[in-house]
Amino acid sequence: xxxxxxxxxxxxxxxxxxxxxxxxxxxxxxxxxxxxxxxxxxxxxxxxxxxxxxxxxxxxxxxxxxxxxxxxxxxxxxxxxxxxxxxxxxxxxxxxxxxxxxxxxxxxxxxxxxxxxxxxxxxxxxxxxxxxxxxxxxxxxxxxxxxxxxxxxxxxxxxxxxxxxxxxxxxxxxxxxxxxxxxxxxxxxxxxxxxxxxxxxxxxxxxxxxxxxxxxxxxxxxxxxxxxxxxxxxxxxxxxxxxxxxxxxxxxxxxxxxxxxxxxxxxxxxxxxxxxxxxxxxxxxxxxxxxxxxxxxxxxxxxxxxxxxxxxxxxxxxxxxxxxxxxxxxxxxxxxxxxxxxxxxxxxxxxxxxxxxxx
Amino acid sequence: xxxxxxxxxxxxxxxxxxxxxxxxxxxxxxxxxxxxxxxxxxxxxxxxxxxxxxxxxxxxxxxxxxxxxxxxxxxxxxxxxxxxxxxxxxxxxxxxxxxxxxxx
Lengths: 359, 104
Prior knowledge:
Chain A: GO terms for molecular function: oxidoreductase activity, acting on paired donors, with oxidation of a pair of donors resulting in the reduction of molecular oxygen to two molecules of water. Chain A: InterPro entries: FA_desaturase_dom (IPR005804), Fatty_acid_desaturase (IPR012171), Rhizopine-oxygenase-like (IPR039393). The structure holds 2 protein chains of 2 kinds. By secondary structure, chain A is mainly α. Chain A is built from 20 helices and no strands. The radius of gyration of chain A is 21 Å and the shape is globular. By secondary structure, chain B is mainly beta. Chain B starts with a strand and ends with a strand. The interface between A and B is medium-sized, with 22 and 17 residues.
C-alpha cells in the first residue's frame, strides 16, 4: 500500500516530478475549435446580473440582522447572510481567479479581492495555489488544494461543515503571513517576485479584522463580528457540502479528469450559490469556459464523461462507503464507468493501478 | 539574421483568433487581430507548457487555456499572475497571401 506524503516539498513531490505526473499532459475531450471559441466567449452581462443579485441579497440580509439583532427573528437573516458570505463567496473567488466571470478585467479583480477577504484567503497565495491545482489536480505532493487526504480523517471532514477547521487554519495563516513569514509549501508555488505581494495582502486583511474587533469592543456588541469574519464559521456549510464532492473518493495521481473529478446535478439555488461549479469535470477539462456556459459545455461533451450524480445526496451515498474502505486501504478509490460513447481511460497514459478500483 | 518561413495562408486564421504553427522542432502561435493584422509569438505559455493556440483571443490579448494567464500578443507583455515572464514575439509579413514569420 502506498503511503501518501501530502507535503509539497516531500517524497511524493519528488516522485511526481520524476515520474512525469507533475505538469503532465491531461486528457481532453475533442471539441471543435469553433464550438470551443463560442463557449469561451466572455461577456459582462451574466456576471453583472448575478453579482448585483448577490450584493443586494447580502446587503438586505445584513440589514435584517442589524434590524432584528437581539430577537429570534434574526435567525433566518443569519442563515441567508452566512451562506452568501461564507459559501457563495467561494465560487465568486474561484471564477474571478480564472478571470472568466466578467469580460472586463477590473471587474474580475474587484470581486476576487472582496471574495478572498470574505473567505479569509490570501488573494495572492490562493491565486497561485489554484493555478497549481489546475496543473496537478489531485497529484499527491503537488496539488495544494486536496480537501480530503488519504486515509481520510472523517472527524476532520465532518468538522469542515461547521467552518471551525477552516477558521482555525485560515486566520492563523493570515496572521503568520502578515508577519512576513511564508511556509515552505507556499514558497513552492508562489513565485519569489509575488511573495511580497502575499505579505501585503495578508496585512490588509488583518488590519480590517483588527478594526472590526475594535468596533465590537467599542460598541460592546458582537454585531460587527457577526457581519465580518464570523460568517466564515456559520455560513460555510454550503461551500463544503458542494465543494467536497468535487474530487472526494475518486482517483489520485492520474491525468484524466474523468477519473479524479465529479460532476453532480444540483438544484437551481445551489447552482446560483456555487456558480455552476457542479459541472466540475467540464470546468477542469476546459477552465477557459465561463460558469454560465458550463451547462452548454456539459451537453456537448457528456457523451465522453461518466454519468453525473443525479443529486448531492446520491453523490454522498456513493462516497461514504469509499471513505470507509479507504480507512483500511488508502489506495482504494471509485473508478467511475464511462458510457459506451466515450473514449476509454488510458491506463498507460496515466499509469494508474486499475486493480485498486472496485468498480 | 532573418529567417523568414511560411507559417500559413492568410485565410487559415480567423479574425480575432490564433492557430498553432510547428517548425523545426519549435512551436509558434500565429494571431489575426480584430483589425486584420497578423502577429506571431512563441507557441507555449511562459508559465506552464500549454499551447496558446488553444486559448482565447480578445482584442490584443491571448489568454492561456490552462490557467488563464494573459499576454498582449502584439508586444509579448505578460499581463499579470499567473504569468510573470513575457512572451517572445516574432516579426510577421504577408507575401502573396501567405503569413511569413521571421523565426531567426
